[in-house]
């Protein structure tokens, strides 16, 4: 997705990666295929057929550069883009913007909006599994209560995102300490697979906000097992509180689990074996390689050597590319 709000543009599992840089003419052709495709599925069919026909080989790995390590792996306790860009690959939300920038069901299968525009009732997908960092099933499925727990944890953490959900009934009162009865907040589990949000006033763009981390689910059982508490008892400084301290201390329901995270070195995301949508995971291994930015040409040279599968051109690397006449290969470096 290329939408400019939320975190869906940082989801990498649907990317198509070729072993060689794509030539400019072929990139233009793919852009035309994208423009003409009515749906995401139509585009993938056309793009894969085009690439194969024109001699490209697709692969299931993607190596990219990153410049700063996440400070937390708790999606609901951070407002830092650096954290969210990594964590969004570990969970799914209710809806997700697809490659064609159409918002489609993810952990929800349907939503009904009341006539007055105040109540949004989601039907959740059944059978979605929570797993640990090894991909082992935690013997609990994603349920409506996990979204309720997620919202309470978000408001308890007060990491800077709580103001964005102040339009939900009772949120402001809870955050400000005027009423700490969370049952009065407009996020309810009607049953295991029915989730309801109630707003103070109609909000025409409410559904577009679902791509932000503040609507992520929280595996309540796992959170509690890692020392997590709610309300007045919430204390991230407690000795037994380990949730989100590293990728081994979170629960996953998204396309990837993190198999390795070495500070200032690399982060490796492996395909989640229990992922509900694993048939559509194009990239099975996503590797982030650390780049401190001191060498302005490093991503360019790493792309040329095959260490990276993509690279942006800055002023320094653009001049280097021109001097090396890389353009003569007709390759697209971006």
Strands, helices and their partners?
Blueprint: E1 17-18, H1 24-36, H2 40-53, E2 58-59, E3 61-66, H3 81-87, E4 95-97, E5 103-105, E6 108-113, E7 119-124, E8 129-131, E9 137-141, H4 144-157, H5 171-175, E10 187-191, E11 194-198, H6 220-225, E12 256-262, E13 266-271, E14 285-290, H7 298-305, H8 315-323
Parallel strand pairs: 3-14
Antiparallel strand pairs: 1-2, 4-5, 6-7, 7-11, 8-9, 10-11, 12-13, 13-14
Helix pairs in contact: 1-2
Walkthrough of the structure:
This protein has 8 helices and 14 strands. It is an alpha+beta fold and 334 residues long. The longest helix has 14 residues. The two termini are 17 Å apart.
Structural class by sheet pairing and helices? alpha+beta
Order of helices and strands: EHHEEHEEEEEEHHEEHEEEHH
Query: Quick one: overall form?
Result: globular
Which percent bin holds the helix content?
Answer: 10-25%
Largest sheet: 4 strands, mixed
Strand arrangement in the largest pleated sheet: 3-14-13-12
Tell me the radius of gyration: 21 Å
State the helix count: 8
As residue ranges, the low-confidence spans are 327-334
The total count of strands amounts to 14
Short description:
With 334 residues, the chain is an alpha+beta fold. Helices cover 23% and strands 19% of the residues. The chain is globular and about 65 Å long.
Provide the descriptors you would attach to this structure in a database record.
globular; single chain; 4-stranded antiparallel beta sheet; about 325 residues; 4-stranded mixed beta sheet; 14 strands; alpha+beta
């Amino acid at each position: 997705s290329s939408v400019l709000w939320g975190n869906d543009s940082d989801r990498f599992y649907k990317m198509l990666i070729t072993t060689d840089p794509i030539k400019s003419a072929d990139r233009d052709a793919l852009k035309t295929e994208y423009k003409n495709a009515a749906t995401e599925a139509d585009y993938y069919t056309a793009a894969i057929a085009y690439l194969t026909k024109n001699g490209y080989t697709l692969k299931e790995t993607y190596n990219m550069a990153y410049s700063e390590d996440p400070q937390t792996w708790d999606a609901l306790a951070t407002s830092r883009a650096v954290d969210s860009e990594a964590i969004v690959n570990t969970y799914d939300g209710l809806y997700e913007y697809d490659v064609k920038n159409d918002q489609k069901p993810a952990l929800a299968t349907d939503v009904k909006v009341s006539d007055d525009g105040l109540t949004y009732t989601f039907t959740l997908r059944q059978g979605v599994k929570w797993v640990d960092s090894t991909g082992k099933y935690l013997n609990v499925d994603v349920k409506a209560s996990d979204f309720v727990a997620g919202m309470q944890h978000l408001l308890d953490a007060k990491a800077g995102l709580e103001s964005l959900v102040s339009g939900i009934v009772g949120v402001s009162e809870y955050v400000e300490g005027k009423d700490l009865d969370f049952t009065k907040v407009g996020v309810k589990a009607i049953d295991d697979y029915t989730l309801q949000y109630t707003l103070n006033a109609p909000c025409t763009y409410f559904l577009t906000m679902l791509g932000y981390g503040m609507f992520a689910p929280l595996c309540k059982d796992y959170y509690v097992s890692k020392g997590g508490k709610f309300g007045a008892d919430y204390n991230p400084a407690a000795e037994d509180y380990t949730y989100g301290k590293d990728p081994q201390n979170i629960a996953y329901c998204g396309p990837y689990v993190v198999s390795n995270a070495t500070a200032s070195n690399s982060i490796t995301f492996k395909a989640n074996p229990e992922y509900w949508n694993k048939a559509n995971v194009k990239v099975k291994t996503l590797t982030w390689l650390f780049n401190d930015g001191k060498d302005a040409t490093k991503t360019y040279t790493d792309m040329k050597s095959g260490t990276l599968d993509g690279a942006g051109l800055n002023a320094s690397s653009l001049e280097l590319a021109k001097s090396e006449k890389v353009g003569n290969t007709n390759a697209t470096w971006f």
